[in-house]
Amino acid sequence: MRVVLRFDQDCLANAKELAQTLQLPLLSSDQSLSENVDFELRLGAEGLSLREQSLSSEAAVAKTRKAARRGLKDKIKVDVRCDFINGELRHRRLYGGGKNQMILKATGLNKHKPSIMDLTAGLGRDSYVLATAGAKVTMFERQPIVAALLADGLQRLRSGGDEQELAIAQRLFLHQGDSLTCVSGLAEQEAPDVIYLDPMFPERGKTAKVKKSMAFFHHLVGSDDDAAALLPLALATARYRVVVKRPRHAPPLADMEPGLCFEGKSTRFDVYPLKKMPS
Ligand SMILES: C[S@@+](CC[C@H](N)C(=O)[O-])C[C@H]1O[C@@H](n2cnc3c(N)ncnc32)[C@H](O)[C@@H]1O
Asked: Does the CB atom of residue 83 touch ligand 1 within 6 A?
């Protein structure tokens, strides 16, 4: 997979640092792109975003036309960024998430605000919902570009000038690295109350409603083939429970039946209780 970092001139210093960290070639805004590039990471005044090149070229135009004919034009999105301030997550913070709040029931968030480790953070959407409800969440993300997008989203959440957003950001901690390694070496007193897992699930057929950003993720991250190893590790580490997010009709992770399930339209939360949570 070939990725380049394109930057706006105002962001040159940050772009150089990021390119060095991620070991990516740098491209200024007026340089043209070679054909064999798969993803373009873009750094500008709006922060960091990732564009899948195959979708921004002719294929995207064709796709957009096809979607336009079906009245779906505005659903085609090719850029992915981590945005905790606007859009869906803002709506969820201000007005609640309806059935989406199943995640809070599954993780046992009530008066007691558990400490949570999210071993598969991705773009941090689930962690953000948990932190909004008052939990302290430590996130692990091993894909360096995804971790950079997440760090950028957190930075904007921290520095937007809104007190509530700042308080949420202060409950979110990010580690770039493989949780399988990081969590194995954890001392007993560092164990979290709850461990949360949401590994990638193999891409579904064309007819299924796979969210655009999820399809994109599949291309970038792959299918987390070692995901089954996370569950025994999580069960040996968490104090009170482990929660696994799955597509609704998927088999349980590592074929281990959960003690309890919360089912939504397309998603399921499998709960593996270890000890009664304080209420
Ligand atoms: C489906 S996404 C998670 C989406 C996330 N729950 C959200 O709300 O944005 C899965 C992510 O877990 C990461 N991942 C999988 N196994 C991991 C591991 N052992 N350590 C750290 N990150 C891992 C992948 O790189 C991917 O970004």
From this structure: no
Does residue 200 line the site of ligand 1, with CB under 6 A?
Answer: yes
The domain locations on the chain are: 3-80, 87-273
Chain-centroid distance, C-alpha 45: 22
Same-fold call for 3-80 versus 87-273 = yes
CATH 3.40.50 fits 3-80, yes or no: yes
Q: Is the pLDDT of residue 207 over 50?
A: no
In testing the pocket of ligand 1, which one of 140, 197, 200 has its CB within 8 Å of the most ligand atoms?
Answer: 200
Take atom 12 of ligand 1 and give the residue whose Cα is closest: 120
Mean pLDDT across 194-198: 98
What b/e readout covers 108-145, taking b as 16+ CB neighbours within 10 angstroms? Answer: bbeeebbbbbbbbbbbbbbbbbbbbbbbbbbbbbbbeb
Which CATH number is correct for 87-273, 3.40.50.720, 3.40.640.10, 3.90.215.10, 3.40.50.150? 3.40.50.150
Single pTM value for the model: 0.89
Q: Identify whether the C-beta of residue 40 lies closer than 8 Å to the C-beta of residue 33.
A: yes
User: Is the beta carbon of 272 within 6 A of some atom in ligand 1?
Assistant: no
Å from CA of 254 to ligand 1 middle = 16
pLDDT at 208 over 50: no
Please tell me the distance between residue 119's alpha carbon and the centre of ligand 1 in angstroms. Answer: 7
Mean model confidence pLDDT for the chain: 87
